[in-house]
């Protein structure tokens, strides 16, 4: 940690960094050295040798590291991380005190001034996600800071240094007392099973909390609901608890069947009355058209990228076509919940895909609800890419 490297920000990028942009990118740096040690402290200066910010080197798909401080005299030490974590924890006070929700994000990367790191809370269990070897280099400081600030049942971690999960260990226990999984967490009074010992995905994506609540409280009643890319069926559970007539969950992964049954039963829902289908959604759409199945509410929440046997799906390239498939099996006046977590396009472009899909289907539509990340997924205006979640409820007009 003694290693310091000074990097010069190119003229046309200097103002951006001076006004708070946090991601250290290759294109912005005059003298980037890709071979430097992960965790190296970086001092960013402008072409006139004036200090801009300090950060760390950590390779991620997103860039080469993150700014940590704009104060030249700040030391990146134990105290630094305690202060950052304390601010982050205080910002989530209402979540810690919530009587009906005990699963939320405590640290959201650059939104909390700690790019490359997230920490989530699951009923007394903390899960740290490290997104680069660079940030992992500071693990002792960060884990000690957490231990100092909170009481916990246990701390777990995921080393998500690369997108293929090469560094993920099934049971990456850090401190406390090992849990027995699943642990059952609560979100707006709904139960969800969470496994911190099964790889990167733990059973629930916390960023959709408000969308699930909205579906349950305002859109599900009496409806025939199709939930595509359903994973553990969290949206189906929300719809069923909102008194949907029936839910159909479709996911390619075999594990999704048992996991979805589990989530239903944790909430007292008879899974025999629901359909859970393990299949490629694109096949399912064809099947549904052939059988003339139609739904009142269709939920689309695909990954940004997915590779199945035959199809490569990229949200940026293929979302429009996914919507067209959905439109073809949505009833008149029905609702499509279109969601994407792709950070490669913004809401405006997403709405462009929606518009195109309806035009090409010769349909009219109305946008009825819009969601982005919830409060605990804190973002900063200087880094709009960080606000990746886009959810739009669309009414299919006759
Ligand atoms: N909507 C879910 C999260 C989706 S995660 C939720 O709210 O919890 C993405 C899911 O898409 C994964 O479970 C993966 O198995 C599934 N998936 C990816 N490609 C698919 C395809 N072509 N057909 C069906 N499911 C697919």
What can you see in these coordinates?
α10 crosses α11. This protein has 3 domains: 4-69, Archaeosine Trna-guanine Transglycosylase, Chain: A, domain 4 (Roll); 78-189, Transcription Regulator spoIIAA, CATH 3.30.750.80; 205-397, Rossmann fold, CATH 3.40.50. It has helices at residues 11-18, 78-91, 93-96, 133-136, 139-149, 209-219, 234-241, 255-266, 281-290, 315-328, 347-360; strands at 4-8, 41-45, 51-60, 63-69, 103-108, 117-122, 125-130, 154-159, 173-176, 183-187, 190-194, 224-228, 246-251, 275-278, 295-300, 305-307, 312-314, 330-340, 364-371, 390-397. It has a 7-stranded mixed sheet with strand order 14-13-12-15-18-20-19, with helices on both faces. Strands 5-6-7-8-9 form a 5-stranded mixed sheet. The protein is built from 11 helices and 20 strands. With 398 residues, the chain is α/β, with parallel strands linked by helices. Helix content is 28%, strand content 30%. The structure holds S-adenosyl-L-homocysteine. The site of S-adenosyl-L-homocysteine (SAH) has 22 residues, from α7, β13 and α9. Pfam families: Methyltrans_SAM, PUA_3. Keywords: Methyltransferase, RNA-binding, rRNA processing, S-adenosyl-L-methionine, Transferase.
